[in-house]
Amino acid sequence: MPTLRSREDFARIGEHGHSRADRLMVVRFVPNDCDHDRYGISTGRRLGGAVRRNRVRRRLREVLRRRPNDTGHGWDILLVARAPAADASFDEIRASLEHHLCTIRSSMKAAP
Predict the structure, then answer these.
(1) pTM of the full predicted structure?
(2) How many CA atoms, within 13 angstroms, populate the side-chain half-sphere of residue 61?
(3) Rounded CA gap, 19 and 21, in Å?
């Protein structure tokens, strides 16, 4: 799974990206120049200590690993975990992320 690592990529998504949100996470996305999606994960200190933040990151990476890359375009997608994500189950995180990614796919199809 290709990941976003540079500060410039994160800043570009923050400045020019679209976003979707629910109680567990905010998903920001912007087109890239690649033929595949790239993902970034942000877990702030509001989630708790390092153990809780790492658990949320591992769960998000596992959800992404299990799903096919079926957007059909190259997108940079930033996942920003909110505080309730630290107490959410794996299935709740998966359902939330799947919902957001389906919404992103539908907005891509609607774009000219």
Answers:
(1) 0.89
(2) 14
(3) 7
